[in-house]
Inverse folding.
């Protein structure tokens, strides 16, 4: 009894395997080209063997092609192309002062070969390094109402150095200030008010200017304090400031500002005013759009202030993305809602802190802002539209299972976080593209990431290695032979281009030869819907036979037709 049950189970298993194989075969069977064949199903294979025979389907499963006597050297499959190789995998390490670098993302380089049905998956690790370098640029509104804030910063001195040292041992500081465009209606144009825009306050101050870069980023905190001391306030006419003009220059003038290559870059924009934006320059007759280029004189003066309009938020955002720089808006209480609305549009790169009237809490804002940016991580890539790259992570145990996301907001310095990546080719690129390099990077970390060197399979090897044979005998002289198939000249069709369309009155006449009679004395479907019509003859799907594919083959089980208990009769 048990033996019978086991025999039955084995029989059902065999039937299941045969059905699965049959399903794959039916998907493969009617593909006309090698690349269509390999893209249809991972199990499909293509026969390029010239001696295989022109009337047999060249697209089948690997086992079926072997069974049909296609030579091993003439079979192209999906199995031989796929490859993923980790080329560089330096382990994570904290910042090294001798090498002036840290390793936060591992591995660094991966080579892979990619076809349409062959997605590749791999894992990379992110571990934020201890004492990663920080470049901090203090961009200050030095209009008259910010005089107390400047004085407060000057008096902080050593406190500033200690506060930054608590964040990282490797910090540097830079400094610049802004007022507004020195032109009506943003300033008063009477000569005595141009010379001293603070005359209404019965004080003396500097003439209005747009932006002034005062100190290149440096390790010397004393220089920073000294520049603050010697920087005088100025004034403008309205309650909007030129902060975006200044911010654009800080972001695009990398060498002049002194930004480092392997650093975390943060700008603190401290102000008690609103911001002029794109279009406001028209009020002063300035019509040229901001060109997002560096325009700093040798003295650090923004020379384009009267030539270019203020930048838009979109332009600022794009430059933040490119430069990988974060901005902390340190603003007074009454401006919080305004700046938070700006932050909502650029939340990956900005944060907002409440600045006390005299800036006495600026160190706290620096501390909080820095930790906010370190706590967030997001990975992006520069893949083209024909590639699809997806990410999953559990954010170091924050989720019970990996989520479909590339970002986490619970990052701790020194802790490892795993990201799982899948790379998929969804469409073929232009024919000239056979390999490319894609970079996976964190939005705010410079010069680190995972570099993917990708070879794409755009065609079968036989198509790339051999030129078509023009007027081949295999194509009856009426077509070109390549990769096991004929491309027929105009007026000829068929596997070997031997079917002359001029011999038939119409394509309907040609198809009718492949139709059998139905029970209503009418012509039935072409090849009984079980095959294809080639020059008036049916080529049947696997499992069917007969002139019009009207007969079902009897599938042998364990090599026995009808289990050896009957006769297969169409």
């Amino acid at each position: 009894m048990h033996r019978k049950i086991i025999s039955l189970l084995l029989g059902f298993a065999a039937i299941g395997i045969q059905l699965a194989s049959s399903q794959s075969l039916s998907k493969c069977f009617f593909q006309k080209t090698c690349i269509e064949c390999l893209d249809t199903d991972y199990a499909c294979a293509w026969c390029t063997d010239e001696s295989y025979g022109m009337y047999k389907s060249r697209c089948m499963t690997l086992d079926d092609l072997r069974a049909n006597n296609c030579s091993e050297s003439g079979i192209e499959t999906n199995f031989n192309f796929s490859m993923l190789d980790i080329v560089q995998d330096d382990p994570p390490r904290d910042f090294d002062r001798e090498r002036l670098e840290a390793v936060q993302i591992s591995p660094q380089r991966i080579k892979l070969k990619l076809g349409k049905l062959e997605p590749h998956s791999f894992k990379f690790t992110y571990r934020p390094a201890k004492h990663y370098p920080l470049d901090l640029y203090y961009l200050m509104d030095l209009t008259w109402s910010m005089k107390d804030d400047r004085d407060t910063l000057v008096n902080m001195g050593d406190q500033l150095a200690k506060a930054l040292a608590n964040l990282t041992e490797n910090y540097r500081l830079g400094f610049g200030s802004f007022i507004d465009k020195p032109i009506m209606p943003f300033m008063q144009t009477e000569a005595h008010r141009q010379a001293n825009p603070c005359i209404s306050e019965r004080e003396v101050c500097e003439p209005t200017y747009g932006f002034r870069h005062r100190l290149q980023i440096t390790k010397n905190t004393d220089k920073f304090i000294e520049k603050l001391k010697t920087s005088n306030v100025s004034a403008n006419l309205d309650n909007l400031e030129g902060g975006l003009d200044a911010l654009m220059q800080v972001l695009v003038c990398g060498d002049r500002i002194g930004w480092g290559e392997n650093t975390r870059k943060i700008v603190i924009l401290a102000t008690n005013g609103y911001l002029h934006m794109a279009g406001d320059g028209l009020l002063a007759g300035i019509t040229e759009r901001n060109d997002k280029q560096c325009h700093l004189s040798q003295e650090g003066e923004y020379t384009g202030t009267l030539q270019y309009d203020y930048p838009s938020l979109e332009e600022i955002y794009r430059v933040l993305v490119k430069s990988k720089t974060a901005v902390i808006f340190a603003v007074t209480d009454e401006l919080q809602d305004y700046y938070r609305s700006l932050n909502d549009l650029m939340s990956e790169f900005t944060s907002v802190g409440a600045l006390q009237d005299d800036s006495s809490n600026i160190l706290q804002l620096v501390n909080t802002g820095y930790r906010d940016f370190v706590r967030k991580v997001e990975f992006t890539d520069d893949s083209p539209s024909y590639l699809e790259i997806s990410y999953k992570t559990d954010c170091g145990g924050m989720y019970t299972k990996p989520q479909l996301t590339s970002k986490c907001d619970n990052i701790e310095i020194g802790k490892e976080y795993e990201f799982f990546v899948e790379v998929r080719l969804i469409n073929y690129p232009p024919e000239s593209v056979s390999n490319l390099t894609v970079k996976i990077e964190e939005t705010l970390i410079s010069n680190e990431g995972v570099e993917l060197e990708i070879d794409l399979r755009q065609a079968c090897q036989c198509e790339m290695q051999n030129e078509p044979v023009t007027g081949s005998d295999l194509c009856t002289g009426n077509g070109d032979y390549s990769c096991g198939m004929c491309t027929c000249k105009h007026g000829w069709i068929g596997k070997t281009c031997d079917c002359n369309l001029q011999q038939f009155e119409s394509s309907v006449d040609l198809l009718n030869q492949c139709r059998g009679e139905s029970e209503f004395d009418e012509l039935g479907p072409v090849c009984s819907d079980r095959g294809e019509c080639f020059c008036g003859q049916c080529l049947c799907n696997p499992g069917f036979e007969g002139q019009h594919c009207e007969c079902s083959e009897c599938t042998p089980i364990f090599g026995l037709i009808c289990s050896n208990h009957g006769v297969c009769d169409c």
